[in-house]
What we know:
Structural class: alpha/beta
Amino acid sequence: MAGSRSGQAQRLVGVRVLVPRPRExxxxxxxxxxxxxxxxxxxxxxxxxxxTDPRPLRAAAELLRRFAWIAFASERAVSALVDAARAAxxxxxxxxxxxxxxxxxxAAALVANGLEATLVATxxxxxxxxxxxxxQVHPGxxxxxxxxxxxxxxxxxxxxxxxxxxxxxxAYRSSPAGAAPRGWAEVVxxxxxxxxxxxxxxxxxxxxxxxxxxxxxxxxxxxxxPTTAAALRARxxxxxxxxxxxxxPEWVEAAxxxxxx
Length: 261
């Protein structure tokens, strides 16, 4: 029987798994999948770019001391604000703010940038982060939300509804990687057993590609969290499994459930 490096039986032997991200941004996940015997295809479907108008992000980075809290709903938001703070010369101010992370992956991105999360939401959604923040934010505290340009506004709206002074700035934007990204023809010709979806935007990017509609009938979709799962269902694709957290171990467990189920 095949065994992983830990000596345990591999659970994804010969299973072809599509990870719709660049390999360099998903190395831990790819390694864990391969440790389970999976054949991993990393294919970026979205390109992450600076916001259409970078001025609000730059202005916020210059005035970080105005904010008691900074809330991050993605790893990319962390790197975008860190880069802006570095350019503005305000990294020291960033280190003294209270930082909230949507989940362990975003908290790890903070650590990788020399920062530490004051708060990590136990439920890795915008709703979960807003609930955690509302229990910690004091009256008069201002909250900065560096976010995806096209992202959901549930966190901003929940804080504003509670009377919190919140400023949302576009930190980055995502766009489809192209009409047919390199490697897509291989996906259509030799479909994976499952695809790991980390956001509604990735779902839309996948289903917009030529030949994707036919894959829905045979490929098992794995979603992270209820929002991405809802995006799949809205397009008629029932998730085979849902990862509770956007962490490599949770992704792998969800992929195993999808294949075994």
